[in-house]
Amino acid sequence: MPFDATITPRLAPKAAPSSAEGDRVVGLWLLAVAAMVLVMVAVGGATRLTGSGLSIMEWRPMTGWLPPLSEAEWQRLFDLYRTIPQYRLVNQGFGLEGFKRIFWLEYLHRVWGQLIGVVFAGGLLWLWLSGRIRRPLVPRLLLLFALGGLQGFLGWFMVASGFFEHRTSVSPYRLVLHLGLAFLIFALLVATALRLLRPVPTAPVDAWLKRGTVAVGVLAILTMLAGGFVAGTRAGFTHNTFPLMDGQVVPAGYGDLSPWVLNLTENLASVQFNHRVLATATLAAAAVLAWRAFRSGASAARSAVLLFGGLIAAQYALGVATLLWVVPLGLGTLHQTMAVLVLAAFVNALDRLGALRDPVA
Predict the structure, then answer these.
(1) DSSP H helix total and E strand total for the chain
(2) What are residue 248's DSSP bridge partners?
(3) What is the rounded distance in angstroms from the CA atom of residue 210 to the CA atom of residue 126?
(4) Is residue 6 part of a domain?
């Protein structure tokens, strides 16, 4: 019997996804991971402000998904917590129920971090197997995966610093290192995603605007890192007046520590003053940048730069409010979260100005 093509179905091979389609899927996946990192930073801020970060004294990145499932396990973890200075000097006597209240926030923080790892690793494997990841992008994605693993280790390295005999909180140096790496990972995620989701800018860009955006962004990042030392030393709970610091431009005690360099990171008055000065310099520079952008004519780059400047102004106002209200949980958490949004606006502006384009895109 002759073969009849009209009644026999043809099994055509499945077409490989186009480069543009693959880039779009990969870009959206990276933005989703970046959004998870944003939530992670917010939860981390709340964990720090509530003193919850030292409540879990074990690091189990592979097996720590489940919370305590019995009263005996709760008691075991509580007994561990009672051995560290934070319990003896800050929370002594608050009992098992009090321990459970601080435990849950740190548990959420850790599980959310593990979930980010699963979403990134699982997405990377699926997108690679489905042929959606172009070869030039692979080293960048592997770097992001490695940085994520390093961030998990740094998180534990930071927490472990709070177990020392003289501490009731984590080391501010380790906190800034942990926070700074979170900012770096977030920026790389957003920058890579925008390269994949947007066409290469073709309109001419004001060179002054590009250089000015980089300069303001560097100032903003320095302000964020200085803010990490404010958070790590709890300097925001002192000198809660503005614009003067308890009636003085330069606070009493500035520069009292020896060697002098320690004042930059450990002197409460100096740490807060430096953060204020950097924030004010960033705001002033952003205002000049926004004025120049406004005069540059309508364009996507101008809108991105204006958004960047507007978020810096909003962050400055939020920082002042957080200080004057003596760092309430909601404002303190929002202030840390807003820093990530400022960073996202900076990366977005750089991309619109064509400053982040390379052969990967």
Answers:
(1) 10, 0
(2) 245
(3) 37
(4) no
Cα–Cα distance measured from residue 142 to residue 167, given in angstroms and rounded to the nearest whole number: 36
Number of domains in the chain: 2
CA atoms of 356 and 348, how far apart (whole Å): 9
Residue 238 CB partners (closer than 8 Å, separation 6+): 268, 269, 272
Q: What is the pLDDT of residue 360?
A: 44
Instruction: With CA atoms as reference, report the closest residue to 234 among 314, 343, 332.
Output: 332
- What pLDDT digit, counting tens, does each position of 167-182 carry? 888 999 999 999 999 9
Amino acid at 349: A
Q: Rounded to an integer, what is the distance from CA 189 to the centroid of its chain?
A: 11
What is residue 17's predicted lDDT score, i.e. its pLDDT?
62
Same domain, residue pair 308 and 216:
yes
DSSP for 256-299, written as a single string:
-SSSGGGGGTT-HHHHHHHHHHHHHHHHHHHHHHHHHHHTT-S-
Whether residues 45 and 185 share a domain: the answer is yes
Report residue 107 as tokens: 């548990």
Nearest to 117 by CA among 152, 91, 73: 152
pLDDT digits (tens, 9 = 90+) for 126-176: 999 999 999 999 999 999 999 999 999 999 999 999 988 788 889 999 999
**Domain's final residue, options 143, 164, 197:** 197
% of the chain with per-residue pLDDT over 90: 80
Q: Is residue 3 part of a domain?
A: no
Q: What is the separation of C-alpha 53 from the centre of its chain, rounded to a whole number of angstroms?
A: 17
171 domain residue, yes or no:
yes
Q: Which domain holds residue 43?
A: 17-197
Whether residues 179 and 266 share a domain: the answer is: no
Is there a contact between 47 and 39 (Cβ–Cβ < 8 Å)? Answer: no
Are 325 and 331 in contact by the 8 Å Cβ rule? The answer is yes
Q: Is residue 4 part of a domain?
A: no
Cα(194)–Cα(191) distance, integer angstroms: 5
